[in-house]
Design brief:
Order of helices and strands of chain B: EHEEHEHEEEEHEEEH
Shape of chain B: globular
Order of helices and strands of chain A: EHEHE
CATH class of chain A: Alpha Beta
Strand content of chain B: 25-35%
Strand content of chain A: 25-35%
CATH superfamily of chain A: Phosphoribosylformylglycinamidine synthase subunit PurS
Largest sheet of chain A: 3 strands, antiparallel
Oligomer: heterodimer
Largest sheet of chain B: 9 strands, mixed
Distance between the termini of chain B: 15 Å
CATH topology of chain A: Mth169, Chain: A
CATH architecture of chain A: 2-Layer Sandwich
Number of domains of chain B: 1
Number of helices of chain A: 2
Number of strands of chain B: 11
Helix content of chain A: 25-40%
Strand order of the largest sheet of chain B: 2-1-3-4-11-10-9-6-7
Number of helices of chain B: 5
Structural class of chain A: alpha+beta
Structural class of chain B: alpha/beta
Number of domains of chain A: 1
CATH topology of chain B: Rossmann fold
Helix content of chain B: 10-25%
CATH superfamily of chain B: Class I glutamine amidotransferase (GATase) domain
Distance between the termini of chain A: 9 Å
Number of strands of chain A: 3
C-alpha cells in the first residue's frame, strides 16, 4: 500500500488571513521565531500497491480539478514511502 | 402567465425558500429544483441560493459544482440562460468557471452579518436592468468567505469590460479586490452577488425593498424575449 500526498497552498499573492492570525498568535505564546505563516491543506490518499504513472497522472488531474482551485491555489503531489 | 424561475436546493442550502419567495413577490413562479436531478423543469431562469452547500467541505461551492443539476445549468448558461448566484451560489458559479475569480475567507476572519450599502455599477445584465446606473442600495450581507480574489489580469478585464455589477460602499466588509460585491459573465446572463437581495424584498423583514429589483429585472427581460 502506498500513500499519495497532495498539498494545497494559497498562491503567494492571495491574502491568507488564517495564516496571518496564526502568525500574530505565536508571539503571544512566546514563540518569536516566525516572520510569517501561510496555512494550507494536506490530503493523504491511500492506494493498493505502488502507484503507476497512469495513476499518478490521474491524481494530478484530481488535484487540479477538485482538490485545489487553480484560481487561488497551487498544489504539490508526492508519494510517501 | 408568469415566468418560471428555478431555485436549486443543494444539501446545506439555506436561502432557497427566501429566494423562491422573492421570485413570487416579484411576480414570477418559483420552481424548486433539486441538486441530484439534471432536470431544469422548463424554467426560464435559475437562482443558486445562499447557504453552506455540502457543508462548505473542501472549499465553498467546490462539491456543489459536480451536482447533476449544475451540468444542465452550465450548459444552459453558456447559451444565454439567466443564472443568479447569491452568496454560496456565487461561490458555486466561480467553482463552476461560469464566473472568474474565487471567494476566500473574509480578511478579518469574522463571519459578518450586516445591512450593507452597495453601488450598482452595471445595469446591462439581465439581473440588474431595473436599476439606475450608480444607484445606491442597502441589502443584507452575511458570510464568512466573501472576499473576492482574482489575478491582476482578470481584475483589469472585469473593470475594462464593465463586468463589476456592484461594489461595497462606505465600508469594506471583507477585503474583496476593488470592493467587488458582484460580477457578471461577458454576456450578462450570469451574475454572482455576495450580499442577499432575497432578504430585502419586503419592509416587514428587510432593511429595504431594494433587493426585489434583481428579480423584477429578470422577469422584465424574459418578457422582452
Amino acid at each position: 500500500m502506498a500513500k499519495i500526498i497532495v498539498e494545497v497552498m494559497l498562491k503567494p499573492e492571495i491574502l491568507d488571513p488564517q495564516g496571518q492570525a496564526v502568525a500574530s498568535a505565536l508571539p503571544r505564546l512566546g514563540f518569536t521565531f516566525a516572520k510569517s505563516v501561510r496555512q494550507g491543506k494536506r490530503f493523504e490518499i491511500e492506494i493498493d500497491g505502488n502507484p503507476t504513472p497512469a495513476q499518478m497522472a490521474e491524481v494530478e488531474k484530481a488535484a487540479e480539478t477538485l482538490l485545489s482551485n487553480p484560481v487561488i491555489e497551487t498544489y504539490l503531489v508526492r508519494v510517501e514511502e | 402567465m408568469s415566468f418560471r424561475v428555478g431555485v436549486v436546493t443543494f444539501p446545506g442550502s439555506l436561502d432557497d425558500r427566501d429566494a423562491a419567495r422573492a421570485i413570487e413577490v416579484a411576480g414570477g413562479t418559483a420552481v424548486p429544483l433539486f441538486h441530484a436531478s439534471d432536470d431544469l423543469k422548463e424554467v426560464e431562469a435559475v437562482v443558486l441560493p445562499g447557504g453552506f452547500s455540502y457543508g462548505d467541505y473542501l472549499r465553498c461551492g467546490a462539491i456543489a459544482r459536480f451536482a447533476p443539476i449544475m451540468n444542465s445549468i452550465v450548459t444552459a448558461a453558456e447559451h444565454g440562460f439567466p443564472v443568479l448566484g447569491i452568496c454560496n451560489g456565487f461561490q458555486v458559479l466561480c467553482e463552476s468557471h461560469l464566473l472568474p475569480g474565487a471567494l476566500t475567507r473574509n480578511s478579518n476572519l469574522h463571519f459578518l452579518c450586516r445591512d450593507q450599502k452597495l453601488k450598482i455599477e452595471n445595469v446591462n445584465t439581465v439581473w440588474t436592468s431595473g436599476f439606475k446606473a450608480g444607484q445606491e442600495i442597502v441589502i443584507p450581507l452575511k458570510n464568512g468567505e466573501g472576499s473576492f480574489q482574482c489575478d491582476d489580469a482578470t481584475l483589469n478585464m472585469l473593470e475594462n469590460q464593465g463586468r463589476v455589477i456592484a461594489r461595497y460602499l462606505d465600508f469594506d466588509p471583507n477585503g474583496s479586490r476593488n470592493l467587488i460585491a458582484g460580477i457578471s459573465n461577458e454576456r450578462g446572463n450570469v451574475v454572482g452577488l455576495m450580499p442577499h437581495p432575497e432578504h430585502a424584498i419586503e419592509d416587514l423583514t428587510g432593511p429595504s425593498t431594494d433587493g426585489l429589483t434583481f428579480f423584477t429585472s429578470v422577469l422584465q427581460q424574459l418578457v422582452g424575449r
